[in-house]
Design a protein that fits this description.
- The protein is α+β, with helices and mostly antiparallel strands.
- It folds into 3 domains: about 220 residues, Glycoside hydrolase, family 65, N-terminal domain (Beta-galactosidase, Chain A, domain 5, Distorted Sandwich), CATH 2.70.98.40; about 400 residues, Alpha/alpha barrel (Glycosyltransferase), CATH 1.50.10.10; about 55 residues, no CATH class.
- It contains 16 helices and 32 strands.
- The protein has an 8-stranded antiparallel β-sheet with strand order 6-7-8-9-16-13-12-11, covered by helices on one side. A 4-stranded antiparallel β-sheet has the order 1-2-3-4, with no helix packed on it.
- A hairpin with a 2-residue loop joins strand 29 and strand 30.
- Helix 8 packs across helix 9, helix 9 runs antiparallel to helix 10 and helix 9 packs parallel to helix 11.
- The N terminus is likely disordered.
Length: about 700
Amino acid sequence: MNGPKQPAARQVLKDGDSYLVADTAGDIHGGADGLFHNDTRLLSVFRLSLNEGRPELLSGSIVSDNVRFIAHLGSRPLPEIGNAASTRPGVHVERMRLLFGERLYERLVCTNYGQQDEPLLLRLEYAADFRDMFEVRGSVRAARGQILPPRMLDEPGVALRYRGLDGGLRESLIAFSRAPQRLAPDHAEFEFVLPAGGNETIYLEVGPTSGNPSKQGFDEALVRARLGMRARRRRGAHARSSARSFNDWLEQSRSDLALLTSELDSGPYPFAGIPWFSTPFGRDAVITALQTLWLDPALSRGVLEFLARHQAQEESTFRDAVPGKIMHETRKGEMAALRELPFGLYYGGVDTTPLFVVLAGAYADRTGDLEFIEHLWPALLAATALMERVCDSHPASLLDYARGESSGLSNQGWKDSDDSVFHADGRMPDGPIALVEVQGYVFAGLRMMAGLALRFGDNALAERLRQRAQTLRRTVEKRFWMPEHGFYGLALDGEQALCRVRASNAGHLLYVGLPGRRRAEAVARTLLSPAFDTGWGIRTLAEGEARYNPMSYHNGSIWPHDTALVAAGIARYGHREGAERLLQGMFAAATHFDFRLPELFCGFARTGGIAPVPYPVACLPQAWAAGSVFMLLQSCLGLSIDARRGRVIVDRPRLPSGVDQVLIRGLALGPRKVDLRVQRVGDRIGVFSEGRDAEAVPVLLRG
């Protein structure tokens, strides 16, 4: 593959509700950088200098385990070629750090590899502005709390302090394993002379509580952090291929999901993305769970449990909450606590409620775990009742949205930019808005609930929901279809006028199986045409539409999760080659992003020798971007699990070019596990079951 790779702009670590964003040397300069805990920035500056100058950066990166960051730094520039003998080598500093248990652990190992003694002045500058995440993102507050005078610690170190307007005291405690020669509120300096071949090590810790930095503490935190990450990486089945680069993409994506997943008391939950969305989101987590359900049902179970526990119980226009609704987002910062913004526990997502029901039904089909579904049943009934109430109040019986107060999101589908819903001439519609893909989610949710009701013996409920789903299907076909385009429109506005815009939202209808075959094929052709398909992935908006801009957030950019859903929809209607093509494009993009797909990137067409164009402020890593490879792969393989019959179905599988074999290890069906090998044999694809339970788990190959 030709063309330069895009460099990683940020070095990211995460553990629980803490995360860190720094540059390649490990320094924090402000901007979007920092050490954050509970949506509050505990370090806004953290810079290392050597002998009163910026160190020479040799390398800096996150280790493949996603636990450690390591930078190699020099106190002097390396000598030019041919002049090695005239320049003393200076001191090498290895800077290693990790996050664990709400704390930053850092180790600085200073080594003199030269033949003479070397003096070294090591200086750390630090500051904490205690800004709320929304301030870092650009929100302007009428007033802030008070930065308090720093407090010196009994152990060598300093406590930076802030009293919020909510009355809470927030502290950032910076502690060292040895006393610096000079310790001030904004910096610490260490001086020593390193003998030839000698070294010195400094440990430090930063967090909301005090620490006691030491070699033992650092090593113990590292071991425990690696064990926790390893456990998250090993959960569920594991996919590998015969192609090294494709494996790199699979492994990076698996590592990123493990990094973003927090172990909550309700189970594992994937936080949405870093830096802006390192918190539980409803929609993002459900989509991520759907992407990985075939491999790791435990993640879906954790998502369902958390969302059920946080289902709205009362009405609030400020939080866009009504009983039965599933949450959109939760935050823990000062601005949320003061209700300056509604996002402390916010419900302004129109699609999260039906997607919650869809995930529950998909989880039941995948696992057969009806005991857990019975536990969720009150939440599922409440969610379904809410959907029915909202649909009953709409003139066309559709699920729509309108924010309760101006502080909420104006658009509440997954494309939640202010300008993401519009008419063909670019006009902004008056609400309430009924998005096309949301009706597909409702259709799928009603059908899922009907199937579950049958399994629980409630035939009357099952029949009513099934009939309602069919009525909704007819309404969508009648009200959203644009015969002049052979495509579905984006939305109905408050006057019931169709936004006659070709957007990728229509591809989600294919994912849930709402269209008839003829219309589905027409939609698939359009999505795979140059208007949408860039060669890297699917644009969110067709080229040529009003407001099309490949550099926008939602009006022409490429979102990997959106492409994966489109591919799954196309594959559902039998167009496996289209899914393979989209997988190939995403794979090509991934190689340019060092196999870590960002939240989104620009929607310029792929041309020879040119890399995909990044979107500068995209989250990286981001959960549903990381999960995309697994949904794309499943779509190509045509693989599904029928838990009721205890079998695996592989329907007309395809392998991407350059990949001759995919091995799925540890695919679970109840207590049994099977290994599946999908292999190219001449011009055909064969499927072979292996492992201890292979004979007990039938594999049905179609096509």
